[in-house]
Write a structure and sequence with these properties.
This protein has 184 residues and is mostly helical. It contains nine helices and two strands; from the N terminus they run ααααββααααα. The chain is 53% helix and 3% strand.
Amino acid sequence: MIKTICATLVLLCSSFNYEWDFNYTNKDEFVLGITECTIEFNSKIPPQSRTIVVVSVAQAILESNWGKSRFALEGNNFYGLIETDKSKPHIKALGSNIMLKKYERKCGSVADYITLLNRGTEFKEYRELRIKQTALQELDLDELIDSLHTFAIDKNYTKKIKTMVGHLLKQYPDIFKIVKSESA
């Protein structure tokens, strides 16, 4: 219990460099940018709170169409993160009252994504599994991805993440080789 409280305090008090940013004009640059943002934010939080880099990139690709969606281009929102406070920067979905967060910097979206996984009540199963896998130092990527079923309403979402992760591991083996041996 004490470790959980301490980890939460570190997570809440960690300062992330929101000034860091990246540019992209193609898929390779997008993958590298999301990867670097994820690694940067992960380095600021305890190991049991870190997300798997290749999963972060896969979800950013799926949610933003490789950074080409309107929300990605106009709001640096790569994960479809919703804003509930009208006074905060946001973009309205077309034909809907749904508001998505708008970020000044691209890495802000990545940081919020990781924070959501660490705090959102809908990701309790994911957090418990990640802590268990971290403690045992045994990564079961498929099981961890399955626990992200609450991220989207698409019933095939976790299958799509797994497919994208497989593509990324094959296409970018030098970037994602860490996934095979470590959980961060």
